[in-house]
Protein backbone atom coordinates (compact mmCIF):
# COMPACT_ATOMS: atom_id res chain seq x y z
CA UNK A 1 0.00 0.00 0.00
CA UNK A 2 1.34 3.44 -0.93
CA UNK A 3 0.05 6.53 0.88
CA UNK A 4 0.42 10.25 0.32
CA UNK A 5 -0.10 13.13 2.74
CA UNK A 6 -3.51 14.17 1.45
CA UNK A 7 -6.78 13.69 3.31
CA UNK A 8 -7.43 10.55 1.22
CA UNK A 9 -4.91 8.70 3.40
CA UNK A 10 -6.28 9.88 6.77
CA UNK A 11 -8.23 6.68 7.41
CA UNK A 12 -5.03 4.65 7.32
CA UNK A 13 -3.12 7.03 9.60
CA UNK A 14 -6.03 7.09 12.04
CA UNK A 15 -6.26 3.28 12.00
CA UNK A 16 -2.57 3.00 12.90
CA UNK A 17 -2.84 5.55 15.75
CA UNK A 18 -3.86 2.97 18.34
CA UNK A 19 -1.80 0.57 20.44
CA UNK A 20 -4.65 -1.97 20.33
CA UNK A 21 -4.90 -1.87 16.53
CA UNK A 22 -1.13 -2.17 16.20
CA UNK A 23 -1.28 -5.22 18.46
CA UNK A 24 -4.01 -6.71 16.24
CA UNK A 25 -1.82 -6.17 13.17
CA UNK A 26 1.09 -7.93 14.90
CA UNK A 27 -1.15 -10.89 15.73
CA UNK A 28 -2.54 -11.15 12.21
CA UNK A 29 0.99 -11.01 10.81
CA UNK A 30 1.54 -14.47 12.29
CA UNK A 31 -1.81 -16.13 11.46
CA UNK A 32 -5.45 -15.58 10.54
CA UNK A 33 -7.69 -15.22 13.61
CA UNK A 34 -11.30 -14.69 14.58
CA UNK A 35 -12.64 -12.02 16.94
CA UNK A 36 -12.75 -14.31 19.95
CA UNK A 37 -9.16 -15.46 19.48
CA UNK A 38 -7.90 -11.89 19.17
CA UNK A 39 -9.90 -10.83 22.24
CA UNK A 40 -8.39 -13.66 24.29
CA UNK A 41 -4.84 -12.85 23.17
CA UNK A 42 -5.23 -9.16 24.07
CA UNK A 43 -7.38 -9.72 27.17
CA UNK A 44 -10.13 -7.43 25.85
CA UNK A 45 -13.82 -7.93 25.18
CA UNK A 46 -15.10 -9.09 21.79
CA UNK A 47 -17.17 -5.88 21.23
CA UNK A 48 -14.05 -3.73 21.71
CA UNK A 49 -12.04 -5.90 19.32
CA UNK A 50 -14.91 -5.76 16.79
CA UNK A 51 -14.76 -1.94 16.87
CA UNK A 52 -11.01 -1.94 16.23
CA UNK A 53 -11.32 -4.55 13.47
CA UNK A 54 -13.88 -2.35 11.70
CA UNK A 55 -11.44 0.59 11.76
CA UNK A 56 -8.70 -1.54 10.22
CA UNK A 57 -11.09 -2.89 7.57
CA UNK A 58 -12.21 0.64 6.60
CA UNK A 59 -8.56 1.59 6.17
CA UNK A 60 -7.96 -1.40 3.88
CA UNK A 61 -5.31 -2.87 6.17
CA UNK A 62 -7.13 -6.11 6.98
CA UNK A 63 -10.00 -8.12 5.53
CA UNK A 64 -12.57 -10.36 7.21
CA UNK A 65 -14.15 -13.39 5.55
CA UNK A 66 -16.87 -15.73 6.78
CA UNK A 67 -15.60 -19.31 7.12
CA UNK A 68 -18.43 -21.60 8.21
CA UNK A 69 -19.76 -19.94 11.39
CA UNK A 70 -16.68 -17.83 12.06
CA UNK A 71 -15.52 -14.46 10.77
CA UNK A 72 -11.79 -14.79 10.12
CA UNK A 73 -9.56 -11.70 9.83
CA UNK A 74 -6.26 -11.50 7.96
CA UNK A 75 -3.82 -8.83 6.77
CA UNK A 76 -4.36 -7.36 3.30
CA UNK A 77 -1.05 -5.49 3.04
CA UNK A 78 2.58 -6.49 3.48
CA UNK A 79 4.03 -3.01 3.68
CA UNK A 80 2.96 0.64 3.70
CA UNK A 81 4.99 3.31 1.93
CA UNK A 82 4.43 7.06 2.41
CA UNK A 83 5.03 9.32 -0.59
CA UNK A 84 6.04 12.88 0.38
CA UNK A 85 5.95 15.83 -2.05
CA UNK A 86 9.11 16.27 -4.08
CA UNK A 87 10.84 19.48 -3.09
CA UNK A 88 12.98 21.42 -5.54
CA UNK A 89 15.41 23.42 -3.43
CA UNK A 90 16.28 25.96 -6.10
CA UNK A 91 13.88 27.87 -8.32
CA UNK A 92 15.01 26.48 -11.69
CA UNK A 93 13.03 26.95 -14.87
CA UNK A 94 11.34 23.78 -16.08
CA UNK A 95 10.47 21.99 -19.30
CA UNK A 96 7.79 19.35 -18.78
CA UNK A 97 6.67 16.46 -20.98
CA UNK A 98 4.55 13.36 -20.44
CA UNK A 99 4.74 10.07 -22.37
CA UNK A 100 1.73 7.69 -22.38
CA UNK A 101 2.84 4.16 -21.49
CA UNK A 102 1.68 2.84 -24.89
CA UNK A 103 3.86 5.30 -26.85
CA UNK A 104 7.07 3.24 -26.68
CA UNK A 105 9.29 3.41 -29.75
CA UNK A 106 11.05 0.06 -29.31
CA UNK A 107 10.45 -3.10 -27.29
CA UNK A 108 11.46 -6.71 -26.76
CA UNK A 109 9.29 -8.56 -24.26
CA UNK A 110 8.59 -12.10 -23.09
CA UNK A 111 5.41 -13.54 -21.50
CA UNK A 112 3.68 -13.07 -19.23
CA UNK A 113 2.96 -9.86 -21.11
CA UNK A 114 0.12 -7.71 -22.36
CA UNK A 115 -1.51 -4.31 -22.70
CA UNK A 116 -4.84 -2.73 -21.88
CA UNK A 117 -6.59 0.56 -22.46
CA UNK A 118 -9.03 2.04 -19.95
CA UNK A 119 -11.78 0.15 -21.81
CA UNK A 120 -10.38 -3.29 -22.72
CA UNK A 121 -7.41 -5.58 -23.20
CA UNK A 122 -5.45 -4.86 -26.39
CA UNK A 123 -5.12 -8.09 -28.37
CA UNK A 124 -4.39 -11.38 -26.65
CA UNK A 125 -2.40 -11.49 -23.45
CA UNK A 126 0.93 -13.34 -23.35
CA UNK A 127 1.52 -12.84 -27.09
CA UNK A 128 4.34 -10.28 -27.63
CA UNK A 129 3.27 -9.56 -31.24
CA UNK A 130 0.38 -7.48 -29.91
CA UNK A 131 2.91 -4.98 -28.58
CA UNK A 132 3.02 -3.81 -32.22
CA UNK A 133 -0.77 -3.55 -32.51
CA UNK A 134 -1.65 0.04 -33.59
CA UNK A 135 -4.08 0.17 -30.67
CA UNK A 136 -1.09 0.07 -28.33
CA UNK A 137 -1.09 3.88 -28.51
CA UNK A 138 -4.22 3.75 -26.33
CA UNK A 139 -2.60 1.55 -23.67
CA UNK A 140 -2.79 2.78 -20.09
CA UNK A 141 -1.14 -0.29 -18.57
CA UNK A 142 1.41 -2.78 -19.88
CA UNK A 143 3.35 -5.67 -18.38
CA UNK A 144 6.12 -8.12 -19.28
CA UNK A 145 8.33 -10.69 -17.52
CA UNK A 146 11.66 -10.13 -19.31
CA UNK A 147 12.89 -7.62 -21.86
CA UNK A 148 12.39 -3.88 -22.24
CA UNK A 149 10.30 -1.01 -23.49
CA UNK A 150 11.95 2.19 -24.72
CA UNK A 151 10.48 5.68 -25.05
CA UNK A 152 11.54 8.92 -26.72
CA UNK A 153 10.99 12.43 -25.41
CA UNK A 154 11.87 15.73 -27.11
CA UNK A 155 14.88 17.72 -25.99
CA UNK A 156 13.45 21.20 -25.36
CA UNK A 157 16.75 22.67 -24.13
CA UNK A 158 18.14 25.55 -26.20
CA UNK A 159 21.81 26.38 -26.62
CA UNK A 160 21.53 29.10 -23.99
CA UNK A 161 20.04 26.75 -21.37
CA UNK A 162 22.18 25.05 -18.74
CA UNK A 163 20.84 21.67 -17.64
CA UNK A 164 20.65 21.44 -13.84
CA UNK A 165 18.61 18.35 -13.05
CA UNK A 166 16.11 15.84 -14.50
CA UNK A 167 13.21 14.14 -12.72
CA UNK A 168 11.53 11.09 -14.29
CA UNK A 169 8.36 10.06 -12.47
CA UNK A 170 6.42 6.85 -13.13
CA UNK A 171 4.17 4.30 -11.41
CA UNK A 172 5.38 0.71 -11.69
CA UNK A 173 5.79 -2.63 -9.94
CA UNK A 174 6.73 -6.26 -10.65
CA UNK A 175 4.80 -8.68 -12.90
CA UNK A 176 3.41 -11.97 -11.65
CA UNK A 177 0.65 -14.01 -13.34
CA UNK A 178 -2.41 -12.29 -11.81
CA UNK A 179 -0.66 -10.80 -8.72
CA UNK A 180 1.70 -11.48 -5.83
CA UNK A 181 2.41 -8.81 -3.20
CA UNK A 182 5.79 -10.38 -2.42
CA UNK A 183 7.52 -10.87 -5.79
CA UNK A 184 10.82 -8.95 -6.08
CA UNK A 185 12.01 -7.79 -9.48
CA UNK A 186 15.17 -5.93 -10.54
CA UNK A 187 14.12 -3.17 -12.94
CA UNK A 188 16.89 -1.25 -14.71
CA UNK A 189 16.60 2.28 -16.12
CA UNK A 190 18.72 3.87 -18.87
CA UNK A 191 18.73 7.35 -20.38
CA UNK A 192 20.34 8.00 -23.78
CA UNK A 193 22.13 4.66 -23.61
CA UNK A 194 23.60 5.35 -20.16
CA UNK A 195 22.49 2.94 -17.42
CA UNK A 196 21.16 4.95 -14.47
CA UNK A 197 20.78 2.05 -12.06
CA UNK A 198 18.52 -0.77 -10.90
CA UNK A 199 15.61 -0.67 -8.45
CA UNK A 200 14.16 -3.81 -6.87
CA UNK A 201 10.37 -3.70 -6.92
CA UNK A 202 8.99 -5.54 -3.86
CA UNK A 203 5.90 -7.04 -5.52
CA UNK A 204 2.92 -6.98 -7.85
CA UNK A 205 0.03 -5.51 -5.88
CA UNK A 206 -3.65 -6.44 -5.71
CA UNK A 207 -4.36 -6.12 -1.98
CA UNK A 208 -6.68 -3.19 -2.74
CA UNK A 209 -8.10 -1.87 -6.01
CA UNK A 210 -6.21 0.97 -7.64
CA UNK A 211 -7.80 4.38 -7.15
CA UNK A 212 -8.07 4.91 -10.93
CA UNK A 213 -8.13 1.30 -12.16
CA UNK A 214 -11.32 0.91 -14.27
CA UNK A 215 -14.20 -1.18 -12.92
CA UNK A 216 -14.00 -3.77 -15.73
CA UNK A 217 -10.40 -4.73 -14.88
CA UNK A 218 -10.38 -8.00 -12.84
CA UNK A 219 -9.76 -7.85 -9.07
CA UNK A 220 -7.24 -10.71 -9.29
CA UNK A 221 -4.94 -8.73 -11.61
CA UNK A 222 -2.38 -6.20 -10.41
CA UNK A 223 -4.15 -3.02 -9.34
CA UNK A 224 -1.49 -0.40 -8.71
CA UNK A 225 2.23 0.23 -8.59
CA UNK A 226 4.55 2.43 -6.55
CA UNK A 227 5.17 5.99 -7.66
CA UNK A 228 8.93 6.36 -8.09
CA UNK A 229 10.96 9.42 -9.08
CA UNK A 230 14.41 9.10 -10.62
CA UNK A 231 16.42 12.30 -10.13
CA UNK A 232 19.61 12.90 -12.13
CA UNK A 233 21.75 15.73 -10.76
CA UNK A 234 25.26 17.04 -11.29
CA UNK A 235 26.46 14.92 -8.35
CA UNK A 236 24.62 11.61 -8.79
CA UNK A 237 21.43 9.73 -9.58
CA UNK A 238 18.75 9.11 -6.94
CA UNK A 239 15.41 7.38 -6.54
CA UNK A 240 13.11 9.05 -4.02
CA UNK A 241 16.14 10.54 -2.29
CA UNK A 242 18.12 7.28 -2.06
CA UNK A 243 21.26 6.85 -4.15
CA UNK A 244 20.66 4.84 -7.32
CA UNK A 245 24.13 5.26 -8.88
CA UNK A 246 27.03 7.71 -9.27
CA UNK A 247 25.83 8.68 -12.76
CA UNK A 248 25.49 12.46 -13.06
CA UNK A 249 24.27 14.82 -15.77
CA UNK A 250 27.84 15.15 -17.08
CA UNK A 251 27.97 11.39 -17.82
CA UNK A 252 25.02 11.48 -20.24
CA UNK A 253 24.93 12.84 -23.79
CA UNK A 254 22.07 15.34 -23.98
CA UNK A 255 22.95 16.87 -27.36
CA UNK A 256 20.42 14.92 -29.47
CA UNK A 257 17.04 16.42 -30.41
CA UNK A 258 15.28 13.48 -28.74
CA UNK A 259 16.23 11.48 -25.65
CA UNK A 260 15.60 7.78 -25.11
CA UNK A 261 14.41 6.29 -21.83
CA UNK A 262 14.59 2.51 -21.37
CA UNK A 263 12.89 0.34 -18.74
CA UNK A 264 14.29 -3.18 -18.62
CA UNK A 265 14.21 -6.49 -16.77
CA UNK A 266 17.43 -8.23 -17.69
CA UNK A 267 17.58 -11.96 -18.31
CA UNK A 268 20.52 -12.32 -15.92
CA UNK A 269 19.06 -10.16 -13.14
CA UNK A 270 19.14 -11.60 -9.62
CA UNK A 271 15.35 -11.14 -9.43
CA UNK A 272 13.64 -11.67 -12.78
CA UNK A 273 10.19 -10.69 -11.58
CA UNK A 274 8.91 -8.65 -14.52
CA UNK A 275 7.62 -5.11 -14.81
CA UNK A 276 4.17 -3.48 -14.91
CA UNK A 277 3.79 0.16 -15.98
CA UNK A 278 0.71 2.17 -15.03
CA UNK A 279 -0.45 5.22 -16.96
CA UNK A 280 -3.42 7.55 -16.79
CA UNK A 281 -6.61 5.70 -15.95
CA UNK A 282 -4.89 2.90 -13.99
CA UNK A 283 -3.26 2.51 -10.59
CA UNK A 284 -3.11 5.04 -7.77
CA UNK A 285 -1.61 7.99 -9.65
CA UNK A 286 -3.39 9.50 -12.64
CA UNK A 287 -0.26 10.15 -14.68
CA UNK A 288 1.89 8.75 -17.45
CA UNK A 289 5.72 8.78 -17.55
CA UNK A 290 6.50 12.38 -16.60
CA UNK A 291 9.75 14.18 -17.44
CA UNK A 292 10.69 17.40 -15.63
CA UNK A 293 13.86 19.01 -16.99
CA UNK A 294 15.24 21.77 -14.74
CA UNK A 295 17.53 24.37 -16.28
CA UNK A 296 19.00 27.80 -15.68
From TrEMBL:
TM segment ranges: none
One annotated GO molecular function: DNA binding
Ranges for domain HTH arsR-type: 1-95
Source organism superkingdom: Bacteria
UniProt KW Transferase keyword: no
Signal sequence extent: none
Keyword set includes NAD: no
UniProt-listed Pfam families: HTH_5 (PF01022)
Keyword terms: DNA-binding, Transcription, Transcription regulation
InterPro entries tied to this protein: ArsR-like_HTH, HTH_ArsR_DNA-bd_dom, HTH_MetalResp_TranReg, UCP030050_HTH, WH-like_DNA-bd_sf, WH_DNA-bd_sf
PANTHER family: TRANSCRIPTIONAL REGULATOR, ARSR FAMILY (PTHR33154), TRANSCRIPTIONAL REPRESSOR SDPR (PTHR33154:SF33)
Protein known as: ArsR family transcriptional regulator
The organism of origin for this protein: Vagococcus allomyrinae
Amino acid sequence: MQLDITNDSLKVYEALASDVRLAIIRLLATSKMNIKEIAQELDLSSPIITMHIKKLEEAGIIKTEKVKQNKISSLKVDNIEICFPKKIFKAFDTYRSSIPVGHYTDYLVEPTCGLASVNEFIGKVDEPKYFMDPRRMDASILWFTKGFVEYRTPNFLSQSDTLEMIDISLELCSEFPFSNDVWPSDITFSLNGCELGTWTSPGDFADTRGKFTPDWYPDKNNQYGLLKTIRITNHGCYMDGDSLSDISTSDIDFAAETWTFKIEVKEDADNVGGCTLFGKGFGNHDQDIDFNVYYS
